[in-house]
Each structure stands twice: as C-alpha cells, then as structure tokens.
Write a structure and sequence with these properties.
The protein has helices at residues 2-15, 28-42, 59-66, 75-80, 137-146, 163-166, 172-178, 199-213, 231-234, 239-244, 261-265, 276-281, 296-299, 304-311, 323-332, 338-348, 355-367, and strands spanning 19-25, 47-53, 83-88, 100-106, 131-134, 154-156, 187-190, 217-220, 252-254, 269-272, 288-291, 315-317. With 389 residues, it is of the alpha/beta class. It folds into two domains: 2-163 and 353-387, Rossmann fold, CATH 3.40.50; 170-348, 3-Layer(aba) Sandwich (Rossmann fold), CATH 3.40.50.12580.
Length: 389
C-alpha cells in the first residue's frame, strides 16, 4: 500500500504544477533563517506553504517573533499528507513524513557549536536529506570528506538570511526608532548564546548595566532558546522576566526577533560570548567585544578553531563590569581589527548578498518546477516592533 501511494504521488507531481511545501520550525530563529527562501516560495501561486512546529505551544511565539501569522498544521496531518518539499534549518528531530518527495536542510549558524563541525558521531542521520545547503566551503568539504551525505546532496549556497543586511536593505536608524531608543546615543547589541554556561547566566544584568553606564543604548537579544525554562537551555532561569525587570524606556530594550539582522544594522558595537551573530556582525565591519564565559566551550562543545577565529577580530573581556568601557574604547579604534573581520567574512560566508537566489533555485529543483523570479532579498520590511517583549 505504501509503495502504491508513493507511485501515485510521483505521478501527481509529474502531471501537475501544484506543490505543497512544509517548513519545520523548531524555534523562531530557525524560521528567521529560512524566511528569505520561504517568502519567495509563498509568492508562487503554484505552491501551498505550511508550517509545522516542533510542539504546538511554540506556534504563537513564532508568529509574534516573526511579525506575522503563519499557516500551521499539526504532526498527524503532516505525516499522512503528500509533501513535495520539506524544509528545515536544523538536522535534529525531524518529524515522520510518510509521503515526502524531497528534503532540504539549511544550516543556521557558523559558530561550530555542539560538534556540528564534525558530526560523524552524532545521531542525526544527514543521509536523510536530498539537499544540504552549506553556508561556506570549509564545512561542506568537511562533511563531504566524512561521507555522511547522500551523493550529490551538498550544495554551496551561502546564508540567505544575511542578504538583506549585506545589500543595505535594512535602515538601522528606522530600527532604532521602532525600538524607541534615544537617537543621540550610540547603540550596543548584547546577544549571548543559549546555554546554562553562557555569559547571560554568568553575569547578564551586570553586562547590560555596564553598557548603559558607559552611555550606550542597549538592545538585549538573547538566543530564542534562552527563554526555554529547561535547565539545558536557560539554566532554569526565567530570562523573560529577569530581563524585562531591567528594561528602561528609550535606553534598554529586550527583543525577541526571529532574524537578528535588523538589530545588527541598528548597532554600533556587538557584545557576545560565542555565537554565530558575532561572525555575522563582521559583515558590517563594526567592533565586537567578547565576554569570556570559561565553561561555555566545554558545555556547548565548541570547535576551538571557531573560538580562536572569532576572537581574532574582537576584544576579549573577562570582567563583566568592564564591558562598557571596553566597548567605548573599541569604537574609538574601530578600524584596528577591520582586516581580521574581513578575513572572518571570507572564511565564513560564501558570496554574501547573493545566497537567496541560489537557495530558491535548489528548492525549485527539488520541487521539479521552473522557478519564478526571486525578489530582491530584503524587499519585505522587517517588523521589529512586532517582536518586542
């Protein structure tokens, strides 16, 4: 019976231009990673695009964080429906789909955490994907050498999420105004990674206060998983409540936005511990301050080479109370690490600013359709106000 259904599905694809796409959302950040590509697919009348959350309770949060309502279906419907293309930004915990035509996976970061630079021992099963869209050559070559992908599955795409940022399609001043920040002040973005060993858990409030005392507006952008109360993700801390308690109108704001690109464009300096956002900020050639969280490399299983690479273009601080004055000093010498930031960009992102068109072409190839013209990345306005907590 299963073989007969698959044959019927294959025949239907061959004779019809109608296709169904399923986007798997483990969290809001993953949706932000895929949004430039999925938005192009949603503009094609031949395609129906549905979303499946890892758990239904995340649907409302993802809608808020992405600034729009999405068409959600539940796991039972997804498992029994004909799905022509399944898209995910994470290799873990894929749902069971009995009638799936093609599967495409996007990487959602370049920080080298959780052994994803060398996943040969991880229980993921990368060979389930018909296409794996790589952000850079280095990781693609490593995976090819490991022999863990289907033949022909690896495609070098780049990072579509960054196209709007690189192409200057985000107005940083408008983002700051939308967040209600004082226009006369410089703005620091504090964006720690998720982990019980992150700088947020170590000294989050102290870091924010140090930046504010140094004269900055502060945008606090925790990783989406930091709001999960599980011990693994947040150390069991209710960071939504803790961070709301230190907000100051016009000066300090907490943001839960699925795509951090608008926040990068709005910021003069970035403060993080170790996160892909640090590598992304290098594309703007602006200063970065790294807070040393001593236990984070072990807990987050970070590739030491990626730690060294990011720190080569940043100022490392061990005293959280000194973050503000360090950020001021880095801005005073903003060009000193420019060459190192450029080296990170070349190593981390394949042809930034042009990735969306390549990714969309891969999706249409799996859909067995001629692609429609891809809109310029970033044409859709980023709704930051909708993501404020």
């Amino acid at each position: 019976m299963a073989r007969a259904v698959r044959r019927l599905d294959g025949w239907s694809r061959a004779v019809s231009h109608r296709r169904r796409v399923l986007v798997y959302a483990r969290n809001a950040m993953h949706v932000g990673v895929m949004d430039p590509v999925v938005s192009a697919l949603e503009n094609d009348a031949r395609l129906r695009v549905d979303y499946l959350a890892e758990v239904p309770s995340k649907e409302a949060h993802i809608d808020r964080a992405t600034g729009r309502a999405r068409r959600w279906i539940r796991g039972r419907e997804a498992s029994r429906s004909r799905i022509d293309l399944f898209i995910s930004a994470d290799p873990w915990n894929s749902p069971t789909l009995h009638r799936c035509g093609g599967r495409m996976n996007f990487f959602h970061g370049v920080a080298g955490k959780y052994d994803l630079d060398n996943p040969s021992h991880l229980p993921i099963g990368f060979d389930q994907w018909d296409r794996v869209a790589f952000i850079n050559t280095d990781r693609m070559e490593k995976y090819a050498a490991l022999g863990i992908l289907k033949p022909g599955a690896a495609v070098l795409v780049g990072f579509p999420k960054l196209d709007a940022l690189v192409n200057g399609r985000i107005d940083g001043a408008a983002v700051r105004a939308g967040l209600g920040l004082e226009a006369a002040r410089r703005t620091a973005l504090y964006a720690p990674t998720w982990s019980s060993a992150s700088s947020l858990n170590m000294a989050g409030e102290t870091i924010v206060e140090s930046l504010a005392d140094a004269g900055f507006n502060v945008i606090i952008k925790p990783h989406d998983l930091s709001f999960d109360l599980g011990e693994k993700y947040s150390g069991g801390v209710d960071w939504r409540a803790r961070l709301r308690a230190i907000e100051r109108p016009g000066r300090i704001v907490v943001v839960q936005h699925a795509d951090s690109s608008p926040l990068l464009a709005a910021s003069d300096v970035l403060v993080t511990d170790h996160s892909s956002i640090g590598f992304e900020f290098c594309l703007l050639d602006r200063p970065i301050v790294i807070i040393d969280a001593p236990d984070l490399p072990r807990v987050a299983r970070i590739n030491p080479e990626r730690i060294a690479l990011l720190r080569s273009a940043a100022r490392v601080v061990r005293d959280p109370s000194a973050v503000g004055t360090t950020a001021v000093d880095e801005l005073a010498h903003a060009g000193a690490r420019s060459a190192d930031r450029g080296a990170i960009c070349r190593a981390s992102f394949f042809e930034p600013g042009t990735a969306t068109e390549r990714a969309v072409a891969v999706a249409y190839d799996l859909l067995m359709l001629e692609p429609q013209r891809v809109r310029a990345a970033g044409a859709r306005r980023h709704s930051v106000e909708a993501s404020l907590t």
